Amino acid sequence: MDDYNDEKRIVGAFLIGGLIGAAISLLYAPQSGRRTRRGIARFTRNVADEAKDAIEDATDSIHDLMDNMSDKLADIASSRHDIAEGAKKRIVQTLDNVQKAVDKQRAKFS
């Protein structure tokens, strides 16, 4: 979750920096308005593409994180099931041994 917020801040800072840079370039542009508009359009497309890539990377990272968490939870659940099964078998075995001991003692006194 913290990585997502960091990535969001980085993308936001990048976009704001891009807008500031575009505004400054308009003020100091030594070229025609048509060329400047094309440059701004190209720059805007590049920024949009990079923002899209950053969002896709963040989404992939989140999916990977969720897959890893899901796998770890499944492993934990499986190991808990294995532990419970082992404990159940030991309890049944102990109860069988107690029953045999009780039967043996009854046989002695009968």
Write the layout of secondary structure elements.
Layout: H1 2-27, H2 33-109
Helix pairs in contact: 1-2
Structure, briefly:
This protein is mainly α. Helices cover about 95% and strands about 0% of the residues.
Structure characteristics:
110 residues, mainly alpha, rod-shaped
Characterise the protein shown here:
It is built from 2 helices and no strands. It is an all-alpha fold and 110 residues long. It has one domain. It is rod-shaped, with a radius of gyration of 34 Å. The termini are far apart.
Helix-residue proportion: over 70%
Biggest sheet details: none
Q: What share of the residues does DSSP label as strand, in percent?
A: under 5%
Number of domains: 1
Average of pLDDT? 81
Q: How many helices does DSSP assign?
A: 2
- Name the structural class: mainly alpha
